[in-house]
Automatic annotation (TrEMBL):
Coiled coil: none
Name recorded for this polypeptide: Gluconate transporter
Membrane topology according to the record: Multi-pass membrane protein
Record keywords, A-Z: Cell membrane, Membrane, Transmembrane, Transmembrane helix, Transport
Organism of this sequence: Acetobacter musti
Family: Belongs to the GntP permease family.
Keyword Transport assigned: yes
PANTHER family, alphabetized: GNT FAMILY GLUCONATE TRANSPORTER (PTHR30354), HIGH-AFFINITY GLUCONATE TRANSPORTER (PTHR30354:SF22)
Length: 459
């Protein structure tokens, strides 16, 4: 590894100051001037450009590239997920699933157990799904359970958010953990099992326990947001089996794709079919079509009403998509100026053991770039040349991958797409979003670090 690259320069100091200035501008524009997050993030990116010396035209190009890439990756998927969520809610399928959760076998579940059941359901759904897709699918269920059970919205929503974010950070087949496993040459099976073992206590702390505490605090009695088609469609209510089938179809297709990649020859017909239908875009498209058939046509719902349900589900995500795109643009402007290398220099100079060092690098990169995947891949790439010197066992390499994943979700803030999804979908203020999302992810991150350190000492 060429350590001359790690020499600190005046340019590095300028980038750090510029990054801080940009983030302060964004927070002030949103919290004080009440500007829309999209415009605030755009102005924050331009502030960084001016302060860092990055020319305006390249900065604008980087912003457009970053926004376009993120919307290209996630925009259509979020729109499809919103349509699926609209059909699930409007048809009464969400209510049917809720009834099954509230009263399995006809016996009502105590309200105190519901947040725990939601956390388990979110972990199951979050295993093969991207966080954005899982949240859109879970939103109708979260809102309906809160309304029917009388529980505060946050006591139901936070366990779901914790379940999905912990899986996203710690458990393959999510992109971040898979990238780290590949770069660090860790064992996939060991990383998956250890990641699940770490994710469970992280979800318990950041989910039901934190949700119960926060929902009781002053200023956090959040009303349930309105959902598209909440009045319900005509025709008989869908059965529990059909409702679950629609909800779990995209999950099952993506999980089948993941299993086939591990256990089936990739040249075979079955593997190729599962790879095609299990890709997120394909899986959600098939799920929307299946929902239209089973929750619409099969129940005798008029075609124009189905069309209106699908159409009404799209406008609510328009602002969300613009905000997410702006977050991607800000990330790309920061990366174009070289902030990733600068942050890495700070972390590498710290005298910490490898399992803590990689966590610190991932934390710093996540704060700067707003992307868990970027933070994970950059951290793994930075530490990979040091592996021969460290002489790590495969189990230690797995712990490094999990520590990186833990660091990649530390205190996610205004340059994070998930931050704005939670902000918009649950109609939260900036302060409420920080307490709900940023602190929740910090709990997951710190829990992951502590357990990785404990396991490191035991090896």
């Amino acid at each position: 590894m060429d350590h001359t690259v790690l020499a600190w320069t005046a340019h590095d100091s300028r980038l750090i100051g510029s990054c801080i200035a940009a983030l302060l501008v964004i927070v002030l524009l949103i919290s004080w001037l009440r500007l829309t997050p999209f415009l605030a993030i755009l102005l924050g990116a331009l502030t960084f450009s001016v302060c860092s010396g990055l020319p305006i035209l390249p900065a604008i190009g980087a912003f457009q590239t970053g926004a376009g890439k993120l919307l290209g990756d996630a925009g259509i998927i979020i729109a499809l997920g919103s349509m699926l969520g609209g059909m699930i809610e409007h048809s009464g399928a969400a209510g049917r699933v809720v009834s099954m959760l509230l009263s399995p076998g006809g016996r009502p579940v105590p309200a105190a157990l519901l947040p725990w059941l939601i956390a388990i359901a979110a972990m199951m759904i979050g295993l093969p799904l991207f966080f954005e897709v899982g949240l859109v699918i879970m939103l109708p269920v979260i809102v309906t359970i809160s309304k029917q059970s009388g529980l505060p919205l946050l006591s139901v929503a936070i366990p779901a958010l914790a379940g999905m974010t912990a899986l996203h950070a710690l458990v393959p087949p999510h992109p971040g953990p898979l990238i780290a496993v590949s770069i660090l040459h860790a064992q996939l099976g060991a990383t998956l099992l250890t990641g699940l073992g770490i994710a469970i206590p992280a979800v318990i702390l950041a989910g039901p326990l934190y949700g119960k505490w926060l929902s009781r605090q002053s200023g956090f009695n959040i009303p349930c947001p309105d959902l598209p088609g909440e009045a319900g469609a005509g025709g008989p209510a869908p059965s529990g089996a059909v409702s679950l089938a629609v909800l779990l179809l995209p999950v099952s297709l993506m999980l089948a794709r993941t299993v086939s990649k591990v256990f089936l020859p990739q040249t075979g017909l079955t593997a190729r079919v599962l790879d095609g239908v299990g890709e997120p875009f394909s899986a959600l498209t098939l799920a929307v079509v299946f929902a239209v058939i089973m929750l619409g046509w099969a129940r005798g719902v008029p075609r124009h009403e189905i069309g209106q349900t699908l159409q009404r589900s799209l406008p609510p995500v328009a602002v969300l998509l613009l905000t997410i795109g702006a977050g991607g643009g800000l990330k790309q402007v920061l990366l174009s100026a070289g902030i990733a290398d600068t942050i890495s220099k700070i972390a590498v100079a710290s005298p910490f053991p490898p399992v803590v060092l990689v966590w610190l690098i991932a934390v710093c990169l996540r704060q700067a770039t707003g992307s868990a995947t970027v933070a994970t891949s950059a951290t793994a790439g930075l530490i990979a040349p040091l592996l021969p010197q460290l002489g790590l066992t495969p189990a230690q390499a797995s712990l490094l991958a999990l520590s990186i994943g833990s660091g990649s979700v530390f205190f996610c803030h205004v340059n994070d797409a998930g931050f704005w999804m939670v902000h918009e979908l649950f109609r939260l203020s900036l302060k409420q979003t920080i307490m709900v999302w940023s602190v929740l992810q910090t709990i997951v991150s710190l829990t992951g670090l502590i357990l990785c350190c404990v396991l490191w000492q035991l090896l």
